[in-house]
Amino acid sequence: MSEHRRRTMIPIVPVRPTAAPTHDVDPTQVDRGKIKSKAAGLTAIAVTAQRGMEQMGARRSFATLRRINQADGFDCMGCAWPDPHPEERSFAEFCENGAKAVAEEATLRRVDPSFFAEHPVAELSGWTDYLLGQQGRITHPMVLREGGTHYEPISWDDAYALIAERLRGLASPDEAVFYTSGRASNEAAFAYQLFARAFGTNNLPDCSNMCHESTSVALAEVIGIGKGSVSLDDIHEAELILIAGQNPGTNHPRMLTALEIAKRAGAKIVAVNPLPETGLRGFDNPQKVRGIVGVGTELADEFLPIRLGGDLALFQAIGSLLVARHDAGEDVFDTDFIERHTEGFDAWAAHVRELDWDLVDEATSLDRAQIERVAELFARSRKTVLCWAMGVTQHRHAVATIKEMANVALVQGNIGKPGAGLCPVRGHSNVQGDRTMGIWEKLPPHFGDALEAEFGIEAPRERGLDVVNSIRAMRDGEAKVLVGLGGNFAAATPDTEVTHDALRSVDLVVNISTKLNRSHVVVGHTSLILPTLGRTERDEQRSGLQGVTVEDSMSSVHLSHGRLEPAGPQLRSEVSIISGIAAATLAGRGAAGEIEWTAMADDYSVIRRHIERVVPGCEAYDEKVHRPGGFVLPHPPRDSRTFETPSKKAVLTVSPLQMVSAPEGHLVLQSLRSHDQFNTTIYGHDDRYRGISGGREIVMVHPDDLADLGFSDGDHVDVVAPWPDGTQRVVRDFRVVSYPTVRGCVAAYYPEVNPLVALESTAVGSNCPVSKAVTVRLVPAGQAPPHSASDDLQAGDDSEKRSEVKPHHLS
């Protein structure tokens, strides 16, 4: 047996689950410890066991955790990192944060009608995201009627009738918005987009719009498909792996196992990030004895502490150095691949030959010698994988940056061969599958044609609303109903106060949810909560037990089977809820009303057979997903080096060098996750790897920047984001934490700093919110002017435009 398959089991300690917390930590008492040098290890095992026991108890923890990511089990609802081949999976095929996600869903805590009767919405709106989420699983459909103070129970039939009445009463289908989280299954996503389009709209925003939309746009333009081109085996076989704008130790911990395998096979690893992330420094694999005893694996051979937004300049610099070697006669390019499979090489090479190195220095803050060392690694490698996440995608020039990364891969022929490729790492378990199933505001013509042929409906062809444009439409009174299939729209979105005001203005908000979150307490005129089954739970319909399918970051599709007893008898599956709403809404509406919604809810194979005939690459879908480990969707660049672009070739592009800068006295802020959260779900207050615990209203600042600004570690500040339109946004009473990030760059947790991200600040080409480059200034706590337009970035009038948010503290 290979070394990486010798595993150890996670111990299970027999303790009872604890009650839901009734108060939060004191946000003024932030503890500081040392930044950890290695991720995971024995501590990860202990935390996994502790969180499981707190939420589930011993027997339930053991029964549930052993089924995560198994071929006959359920898919983790955390990140979208792929699973090994079925025969290579361990007994414990999960990570610490995946176990936390499962514990939160499989919790024994319950939010029932008595909870809502006891707590008015006005009270709940003052609770932190942590406290809301820790109360447990919602057990009954609930309604908050216009003018009401408390959510009240409602029957499923009455809920469906209420939604149908509001939807049918709209002046246009485009006054409805259908939002989707990446947690939804492929079957639910397909049914959901079918309902929206049968209703008559392409308003299908999803969480992709806020994370990897820049990836989808860039890759579709240059290689013809908006997905990554690698498999897990390619990671294992690579000679060089570069990881930019990503923190796998917290956000994709199982990736560390793949990096360890590659490293031990001889790969070089380069980490590119504005602040050091423990998971890229070293890894104590908790599934191996040496990891448990602290003899782990050093991962990154080079760490490039890059200035925020400097990745475009970095990859142009690498390209320039490679072109110089090529011009000198070195064999650094795959000239045959370039000639046969690409276009645009000459223009790109001419562009990077004229690179302004002074601008590169300013944009990246990197030493040129270090860039040259990394370029040398590229020159020597014949199998390179480029990985990235939201540290790259959430910038104004994100699309251009990803195209530049693709340029470097293409000129070396690192697409369509083993051990090489482009690897965007998705942050939610089925966000890629949702897009494959048609959750997209831009309906592809071939997909619309297939829907019409399959169901006899007239699919709308106009472009719908993405997340940012949905918020604008609600704000401006152009959208009046919001239906959310999972997720936490109120907390995940930018420009918090603008978004919350928009949500409060709509006639109806519907949340299909497992647990309480911010979106349930930022209410429309009428609000509904429809409780749904989780991935861990048994889904039994009229035809018997059902399984659902998901797609990971590497285009692998597989079945997921829950086995736990549902959290309550009133819970319904996502597919059942969507089908119930659709049947009530579309009844009597021609072909749309004749769609077999009841049959799809009774047997998910009916949906999968529709998928076979509508979704490209899904032929024999229902048969293939029942194979152990499922199947891999086709990917022409990876499979055959063919590119579905207008020229039928991969496109090398030329992008002007852009950078992020800030005026004197200002800093550039990025939002990020703590180690104790997944997206907007807050598990606790321990950011263990960064050595920070006890609170979330913090801002990490380089010690030299603190000294220059006259602050000290521990001071409390207001964080002010002035925008060129004369507005300013403020979050108040944040604690300063001295931290070794790049000078001029600061970091803070989201969703706490989402209020600083202006709705109008989006990536060119993708409309993805720019959450990784917000110009801010720090002022002593309580001294941020509450009523003044900023004149820091441009001269403006004296209008008092602002958005101000105070942290949610529970007394």
Q: What does this protein look like?
A:
This protein is an alpha/beta fold. The chain folds into 4 domains: 3-31 and 48-105, no CATH class; 110-211 and 430-638, Rossmann fold (3-Layer(aba) Sandwich); 213-424, Dimethylsulfoxide Reductase, domain 2 (3-Layer(aba) Sandwich); 667-805, Barwin-like endoglucanases. It is built from 33 helices and 35 strands. A 6-stranded mixed β-sheet has the order 6-5-18-17-16-7, sandwiched between helices. A 6-stranded mixed beta barrel has the order 25-33-30-32-31-34. A 5-stranded parallel β-sheet has the order 12-9-8-14-15, sandwiched between helices. A hairpin with a 4-residue loop joins strand 21 (548-551) and strand 22. Mean pLDDT is 93; it is low at 1-15 and 787-811.
Topology of this protein?
Blueprint: E1 31-32, E2 39-40, H1 42-55, H2 58-65, H3 96-105, E3 110-111, H4 113-118, H5 121-124, H6 129-134, E4 137-138, E5 142-144, E6 152-153, H7 156-168, E7 176-180, H8 186-199, H9 213-223, H10 232-237, E8 240-244, H11 248-251, H12 255-264, E9 268-272, H13 278-281, E10 282-284, H14 289-292, E11 297-298, E12 302-304, H15 311-327, H16 335-341, E13 342-343, H17 345-353, H18 357-364, H19 368-380, E14 384-388, H20 390-393, H21 398-411, E15 421-424, H22 431-436, H23 445-455, H24 467-475, E16 481-485, H25 489-492, H26 496-505, E17 508-513, E18 526-531, E19 540-541, E20 544-545, E21 548-551, E22 556-560, H27 574-586, H28 590-593, H29 597-602, H30 604-614, H31 621-624, E23 631-632, H32 636-640, E24 650-651, E25 667-672, E26 677-678, E27 681-682, E28 686-687, E29 692-693, E30 698-701, H33 703-709, E31 716-722, E32 728-738, E33 745-749, E34 774-780, E35 802-805
Parallel strand pairs: 2-10, 3-4, 7-16, 8-9, 8-14, 9-12, 13-24, 14-15, 16-17, 17-18, 25-33, 30-32, 32-35
Antiparallel strand pairs: 1-29, 5-6, 5-18, 10-11, 19-20, 21-22, 22-23, 25-34, 26-27, 28-29, 30-33, 31-32, 31-34
Helix pairs in contact: 1-3, 7-27, 8-27, 9-21, 15-18, 15-19, 15-21, 24-26
